[in-house]
Every structure is written in structure tokens, then in C-alpha cells.
Amino acid sequence: MAITQVSRKGDAPAALSAAGKAALETAAVTRLLVEEGILDYSGHIATRIPGRDAFVIQIGSNSRAELTPEAMLVVDHQGEVLEGEGQPPSELPIHLEILKSRPDVQAVLHSHMELAIAFTMMAGVTLVPMRARASRWKSGIPTHPDPSHIKLTEQGRDLAKTLGPHHAALMRAHGIVLVAESVRALFIDAVHFKENAKALMEVLQAGAKPLPLTEAEIAQIERMEMREWHIKKLWSYYIRKALSEGVLPRDWTDALVPSKEMLRR
Amino acid sequence: MAITQVSRKGDAPAALSAAGKAALETAAVTRLLVEEGILDYSGHIATRIPGRDAFVIQIGSNSRAELTPEAMLVVDHQGEVLEGEGQPPSELPIHLEILKSRPDVQAVLHSHMELAIAFTMMAGVTLVPMRARASRWKSGIPTHPDPSHIKLTEQGRDLAKTLGPHHAALMRAHGIVLVAESVRALFIDAVHFKENAKALMEVLQAGAKPLPLTEAEIAQIERMEMREWHIKKLWSYYIRKALSEGVLPRDWTDALVPSKEMLRR
Amino acid sequence: MAITQVSRKGDAPAALSAAGKAALETAAVTRLLVEEGILDYSGHIATRIPGRDAFVIQIGSNSRAELTPEAMLVVDHQGEVLEGEGQPPSELPIHLEILKSRPDVQAVLHSHMELAIAFTMMAGVTLVPMRARASRWKSGIPTHPDPSHIKLTEQGRDLAKTLGPHHAALMRAHGIVLVAESVRALFIDAVHFKENAKALMEVLQAGAKPLPLTEAEIAQIERMEMREWHIKKLWSYYIRKALSEGVLPRDWTDALVPSKEMLRR
Amino acid sequence: MAITQVSRKGDAPAALSAAGKAALETAAVTRLLVEEGILDYSGHIATRIPGRDAFVIQIGSNSRAELTPEAMLVVDHQGEVLEGEGQPPSELPIHLEILKSRPDVQAVLHSHMELAIAFTMMAGVTLVPMRARASRWKSGIPTHPDPSHIKLTEQGRDLAKTLGPHHAALMRAHGIVLVAESVRALFIDAVHFKENAKALMEVLQAGAKPLPLTEAEIAQIERMEMREWHIKKLWSYYIRKALSEGVLPRDWTDALVPSKEMLRR
Fold first, then answer.
1. Calpha distance A233→B214 (Å, rounded)
2. Which stretches of A103-191 are assigned E, i.e. beta strand?
3. Which of C15, C165, D31, D237 has the smallest number of Cβ neighbours within 10 A?
4. What is the rounded distance in angstroms from the CA atom of residue B46 to the CA atom of residue D242?
5. Running along chain B, 265 residues long, what does each successive block of 10 average in pLDDT?
């Protein structure tokens, strides 16, 4: 099974199947998000497998801090497990319906990010871009009203409708979804999403009127921005840190650490 | 003595007596709660022993971070130590009186949870369910007025009266009690209780009007909820984390880690 | 030199001189306070040597995280170094003048405790007892107006006057002093002082009217209180934790860990 | 190449070139600032090389937690890389323009310090000296309005104009710059800058009117102050801590740890 070949030592990285690569990166990003306090006992990521009508996702009951690519599932868009043994998370409809409705999206995160949830519990407060990196969410961050677990197709569909064309949605009293063009980008977005929520929270807690980014400021930020290079730089930082702290196994190094050439601007 | 057989290596878990099992799980949960910042230099848990008119509790002066099942006491409902050497916590009447008045309760936690105590020191503020998981406390979280140590039978009885049929009570300027159907469930409840207190605190600190869960929202959450499975999933996450970080001794593994079969929904 | 005999392995604890015991406990408490975030790059403790007209204090430039009894100084009440090589902290007058004016006090802490400093920077706010353990400071916590380093005898004398008969004083924009009947009690007081400052801060940040302990509540708390036993219990917890985490060297164990007999109520 | 000789074991520290010394200290301070949460995946330091018309700076994509002197670049004031292989940070103009306009400055830090950024997002709030050590910034802390990355010479020049003769400037929704007379002093300043921002934030969050240091208080603080000795004392504390925790390699010890003689007042 393609997906189990991932971390056999001595394999050249080129030998990884598309599913194996998606499984490895998704397992790695899940562990990184545990380190960042963005995932804990729950939450999960779905990552499309290029060239296949399927995605990888973890077994619902597996610990987010110990994921391995071998333990990931390959699931199709009807929710059928094609490869791997175990049950996907009970909130699978979140991923099924968002991936269906958003062909531009390659990876979806569902998390119970504490700081973001707070913004679904305050009357008259909206989470808006405060810090420069939050220009990513300039189109808006809608809030989905259903506070329960999203276990039914219909619930997933409603959530996908709330998300619409945006890159993030809050879920009332429950959590968030983030979407991105790759699972690496999804991780970097999650870090910045949390930073931005924290920034607005701090300003509100100080009792001051917040000064969100203006349209002119967002335009200026985007003129100077290199998203692709930024993602590579931060990916390199977090992956190396996690490898050196034992958060990721050493034998994932070759497949995950960007080369010096890749890090040239 | 039954309770000392608990962690001898090589014993099949089935060989654990009921008291041994209660002692092991109570010691483990106490250590987990230290890791979560819910217990520290004080606080304690009482867990009923199935089939006996008695419960296990720690020695008052033993460190919460180092408990072992061998060092736990078996105590009867008059407060007599039946097995083990040492003195129970001076606040034993908390447990005696709650266990007497609540036959449905299998485990009681007393903790000085910082975030919860704050809600006993604010005029006109009530701790209510904010996050989805806090639907558990929909019947209300009363506050007990006595701020002193609960060392007398009468004080314990008054606290049990304040708790009434609820799952949690705050203790003015002092701490909380939580009760649950098992010591495993008690641990998961404690984690969610803290999350919920933090959520309301954050909203208040932001100067915004809190939007607690409505009755309709609680009903919707409970429609989608599987408490038993949820407890198993989180138990698995926290136990495995604690074992891998050395918070729990490796030879407790077999008795504590749920099997894959147990984790099927 | 008496003070250097302290931690030679194999010495029975009884062989420790009074100065050696004070030096060992002061070094240990300093390291514990670094762990608790109450000391960092600065702050210091003076502890009287029973039977001598002198006290122990650290060398000003020595790292608070690495103190050893051998590196402590014995200083007399004129500020002369009697034993040890090195300079006391430049703020020595804090200790000289408080020890002179307060014969009941055996140990003095000066710390830059962040949460407490905040209460010297807010118009119209007073740090008062909120949590049960803070009944210790029921007589009041005065604020000293001099925000500079206390390097002159006169400055020290003014600070001692501000402290008066109380157990704690805040120092405007700078720090705190705490005093107690032993260096062990001083450590436990410091932990509770921080908890109480945090509790009041949280209530204020929530925008609520704080409900401090009333006189009747303080009386009730003190009726149920056993200060001496409480200090022993917490001392045991923190010392054992620090030994097991490598914060304190293993060969300090015998001199610091209370026996089971000492921990009986 | 001079800069690569830095950490070869067995070299007497005296053998370090001026560039080597600047590279070693800059790498060390960068790692210390990661430990303090002041640098993370981004931010950087430029340090002048005494006797040369050039400075050292890191490669933009290198991890701040792993810098070595061998991997630092020597760059001239036109931005040309004179020694080392790799690209400086894309925000190099920050350093070029500040070093050009401020001959008194030997070291420049750019950081995304969270607590400081918050002060660029609040209407009607100014970051002012609250804690005694913040008298350093008594001349004021201006805010630069450009929220984007500073990649163009013109942008750098504008930032240098905003900074003017001050020791710190905030950058709208983005970060800060700090400048000092040495890279060691820069590190200590960064620690105190963060403490001061935190102090004001706490007071604001408590809903109280802040009481900043008055002119008379600042004068009193400066009368008792010994900046040079204070920097040495804190440098010693942080360097020793970082060496003992493995944040810095052991073979940097001789070149970084101050001798006892240097620590005499």
C-alpha cells in the first residue's frame, strides 16, 4: 500500500507516492499544531492527494501528538476509506463538504483554537485583520451558527456555505476551519490566524478602540509581500525546530527540510 | 493488602482488585491534573470502590505529582482508614458528605482551580456554559459561601447541600468541587470546566457582553453528543501523552491505555 | 569556614552549622523562586543566622538559578562581609534596615514580581486579600513611593518605615518586599502573594467589582487554619518537585526533605 | 575568512577577529531572544564591526534558534555581502538606513514583539515608561506608520527618520526596532522593553488609569543607576542560563561568560 512506504529509511524522497507525501506532511503539520497549542485532543486536517479523487485524514481516535503517515487513512469524496485501517473523525463531513465545494483548496484544518472561539461568544465584536500577515483574511471571517459537532452531510454543507469563498470561518462556541493551497501553507496560516486573534483580543482587553488594517494598508502590505517565499521560510524554521526537539522523528528530515536552493528568494 | 498489588509488573490487568483499580486510576488522574495545572500543592480526589462501602483517597501530605496506587488509602464513609498508612487530607469531609448525599456520583474532585475561583470574587458575574462541551453544566454551577477549609462534618454537609443535584460547585475564594460517574470522566470534565471558565473570562476581559449557550443550542449539542466515546478518546490522548512524557510510569501502560477495540465508535 | 561545610556529601545533616543551614535553605529557596517566576536576573533573600548577630545573603552578581550554600556570604548588621568572597547585592540596605527594625522577622525577600508591581502603577486600586490564603496580609500592604534602587542607608530606613509592622510592601514601579518567620515560610508566602495578586488582577481585567475577603470571612478562615503544618506540606511538595526536576542537586535531599513524622498533623 | 575562525575550540578568545566577535555575540543574542519569545521565525540583528565600515547580520532564511557565527554575513553599508554565502534578510534596509543615520548606534534589533505591536493598534494609547528600567525610553517611543515589509531604501530611510534620536520605535501592525551601544546592551534593553510593554498592558487591561513614571521619578532612578554594570550582571545571568540549558553550545563559554573581575562593581 503506497501510504505505508513513506518513512522507510533509505528511500529517496522521490520514491514517495503522492499519497505518501500528503500523509507525511499532514502527520507532520498535525504534530506541529499540537506544539503550537492549535490542536490538542481533537481537531484534524484533510489534504488532497494530487492526481487522485481522494484525500488523507487521520484516524479520529489517534493522538494528534503521535501521528505517523503509516497510520493515516486515504478517503474518497463519499467518505469511504480506501486505504488504511480505522475510522476517520466523526466530523468528516466538515472536510468532505468543503473539499467538494472548493476545488481551489488543497488542505482543510478544523481546530478548537481557544482565542478564535472567544470571538463567537461576544456580542458586537468581529474578528478582523489587525496584524500585517492577517491581510490574508481581508475578504472576511464569517461565523457559522451551529455549535454542535458537524457529523451530518447537511451540517457539513451548511458550514461550507458559511465559509463561501473565504479562507477561514469561525464555528459558534466550538472552533474554526481554515483552508489553503497546501498543507504547508495551512500550517503557516494557522500560526498567523492565532497571532491575529491574540492581537485583537489584547487590544480589546486593554479597553481601547481597535485600529484594524485599512484597505490602503492592506494594499501596501500586499505590494511588498511574497507569500510563497514566506511560507518556505517559516516552514523551514518550524520543521527544523520540531526535528531538533524530538517532536518529529529524525528520519522524516530528508522529506521535510527545504534545501538551501529552495530558500533562495 | 489488595491495594498494594496494583502495579506489580507481569500481573495481568484482570488481576487488579476493585480497590487496586480505583487506586491506580485515581493516582494517574491526580498526576494528569497536576500536568494540566488543575492540581498543584493541594486538592484531592475520592473514588468509590465498586462493591465495597468505601473509597480511595490520597494521603494529605503526599505530593500530587508523585502519587502511586500503593500509597493510597482506603477509607470508609465514617472517615476511618481501612487500608494504608497515613492521614487523609484534612478536608476529608468534602468527600465524605458528597459521596453520602450523591449515590449517583463515583468520583469527587476538590481543586483550587485559579480561573474558577475568580468567579467567586466578582460582583454580578455568574459562571455559565459558554463552550459546547460545557453543556454538561447546564443545570447551574452554585457558589458555596464558606471561604475556609472544610474540615468539619457540618461544613462538608453544607457544601453537599450547595452542590445539590449539580455536577460542579464553586467555593468562595477557595476552590471548586466536581463530581462524575467515574474518575476518568471526572478528569475530562475538569479539563472542559477549565476551558469554559477561561472562555468566559476572556470574553469578560475583552469588555464584551458574553453570549452563553442558549437552551436551543444546548439541545442541538446534546443531539450530536456521545459522552462515553468522547471520554474514551480524550482519556487515550492524555494517558498516552503522560506516559510518553514520563508523567506516568511505563508499567502502568497496560492497565490504563484503551485498546483499539475500545476506541471504535 | 562554617559556611563551606554545608553540602559535603556524607555529612549528617546534624553537622550543619547554623550559618550552613541558613545558607543551604536560602540557596534552595532562591532556586525555587526562579522556578516560580518570582526571581529571575535579580532580587535576593536575607536570612538571619540563629545565635549570631548576622545573616546570609547571596553575592549580587551570582545567578539566582545556580546558587550554592558555599557561595553565600555571611554579613553583619553594619553590612560588613564576615565570611565568603564577593560583594552583596547593591540593594543590601533593604535587608539591613528591615532586619534592624523588625526583630520578629527571620527572612526578607526582595523581588521584581511582575503582577505585584502592576498594583503600584494604577490610580485608585489597592492590593487586598482576595484568596483564602491571603488572610496573611489582612493588616494591609503599603506602597513605598521611591522607584529607584535602594542603595543608601536612608533609602532602606524609609522602606522599613513604609513596611512598618506589616508582612509585605510594594515598591513603586520596582518590586516588593516580603518578610516571614523563616525562609521556608517566606517561600510559601511568596507563592500565595503571587496567587492573590493574580486573582485580583483577573477580577479587575474582567471589568467586575472585586469582592475582597470580609473581616468575618478572614476570621472564619483563621479559625480553620494551621499555618505551620501548611508550610511543611507545601515545602515538601516544592522541594521534592525541584529535586526530581534537577532544580536542586540530589545531595541536598537529606537536609531539605521533611520526614513522614514531620508531616503528621 | 576571519568570520569562520570564531568558535574553533582551543582558540584563545583573544584570537577572535573583530568580525568574529561581533558574529559570535550576534548569534548568541539572537538565540537568547528566541528563548525570551522576542524573536521567533523572523526578526534580526545587525551589529557593527569595530574598525571596519561594515556589520554582521544573519542569512534571512536561517533559523533564529540555530544561528552560528560561521553562518553570519559581513555586509557593507551599500548592502553588499563582503563575507559569507547567502542572502541577508529582505528587510536589510531597516539596518542599512538606521546604521547610516545613527553613528552612535552599534547594534539594531528588528522584532515582531507581540506586546509592543499591540500599542500600534489602539486608538489614543501611547507606550510610555512604567517600570523603573524603562527610564531608558524617556525621550519617547515613536510609531512608524508603514505596516508593510521594509524592503526599499526609501522605506528604510523613512523608518530611520521616525526613529530619530530615540532608542526605540514601533512599526504599525508589524514590529519594533531597538538600538543600543552594543549587542549585549541591545539584548538587555529588549528584555526590559518587553517587561515595560507588559506592565502598561496589564494596567490598561485592569481598567485602571496608568501612572507612568514622572520626570522627578526618572531623575531619581537615574541618580541610582549603573547601566554598564547592570548590563554585565544580566548578561552573565542569561548567558549562563542559556549555556546550562543547551541553548548555546558549550564551546562558546570562554568567549561569552564574564569573569568574576568583570562583575565587580
1. 44
2. 107-111, 143-144, 168-171, 175-180
3. C165
4. 43
5. 43 71 98 97 97 97 95 98 96 98 98 97 97 97 97 98 98 98 98 98 97 97 92 95 95 94 85
Question: What is the amino acid identity at position B77?
Answer: H
Measured in angstroms, the CA of B135 and the nearest CA of chain A are apart by 11
Backbone angles phi, psi at D147, to 5 degrees: -85, 0
CA-nearest of A152, A23, A11 to A82 is: A23
Cα B141 to Cα A261: distance, rounded to the nearest angstrom: 59
Q: Which helix or strand (DSSP H or E) is residue A45 part of?
A: strand A44-48
**What 3-state DSSP class applies to D144?**
strand
Asked if pLDDT for residue A165 goes beyond 80, the answer is yes
Taking the C-alpha atoms of residue B254 and residue A63, their distance in angstroms, rounded to an integer, is 17
Q: Helix or strand or coil: residue C110?
A: strand
| Distances from the Cα of C165 to the Cα of A139, B55, C138, angstroms | 62, 47, 12
D135 has pLDDT over 50:
yes
Q: Which parts of chain C have pLDDT scores under 50?
A: 1-2, 4-14
pLDDT at residue B2 in the model: 38
CA distance C144 to D131: 14
C-alpha distances out from residue D75 to D1, D57, D81, D176, Å: 14, 7, 4, 22
Measure CB to CB from residue B207 to each of A40, A63, A207 and give the nearest one.
A207
Give the span between the Cα atoms of A34 and A11, in whole angstroms: 28
pLDDT reported for residue C261? 85
The residue ranges of DSSP E strands in A72-230, in sequence order, are 73-76, 81-83, 107-111, 143-144, 168-171, 175-180
| Interface predicted TM-score (ipTM) over 0.85 | yes
Q: Report the distance separating Cα B196 and Cα B199, nearest Å.
A: 5
Residues of A with CB under 8 A from a CB of D: 130-132, 191, 195, 198-200, 202-203, 205-213, 217, 220-221, 223-226, 232-234, 236-238, 240-241, 244, 260, 263-265
Contacts of B238 (CB under 8 A, 6+ apart): A41, B32, B187, B191
CA distances from A200 to A122, A127, A148, B32, D41 (A): 13, 7, 26, 32, 21
| pLDDT recorded at residue B15 | 62
**DSSP sequence for chain B:** -GGGGTT-TT--GGG--HHHHHHHHHHHHHHHHHHTTS-SSS-EEEEE-TTSSEEEE--TTS-TTS--GGGPEEEETTS-EEESSSPPPTTHHHHHHHHHH-TT--EEEEE--HHHHGGGSBTT------SGGGGGGTT---EE---S---SHHHHHHHHHHHTTSSEEEETTTEEEEEESSHHHHHHHHHHHHHHHHHHHHHHHTTPPB-PPPHHHHHHHHHT--HHHHHHHHHHHHHHHHHHTTSS-GGGHHHHSPPTTTT--
- CB D244, CB D250: distance < 8 Å: no
Q: How far apart are CA A221 and CA C98, in angstroms?
A: 57
Is B204 close to C209, i.e. CB distance below 8 A?
no
pLDDT per position as a tens digit, A211-251: 999 999 999 999 988 899 999 999 999 999 999 999 999 99
pTM: 0.93
Q: Do A220 and D117 touch (CB under 8 A)?
A: no
The three-class DSSP label of residue D249 is coil
Determine the longest span between alpha carbons in chain D, in angstroms.
57
DSSP for C114-155, written as a single string? HHHHGGGSBTT------SGGGGGGTT---EE---S---SHHH
> From chain B, which residues contact A within 8 Å (Cβ)?
130-132, 195, 198-200, 202-203, 205-213, 217, 220-221, 223-226, 232-234, 236-238, 240-241, 244, 260, 263-265
Contact: C220, B146; criterion CB under 8 Å: yes
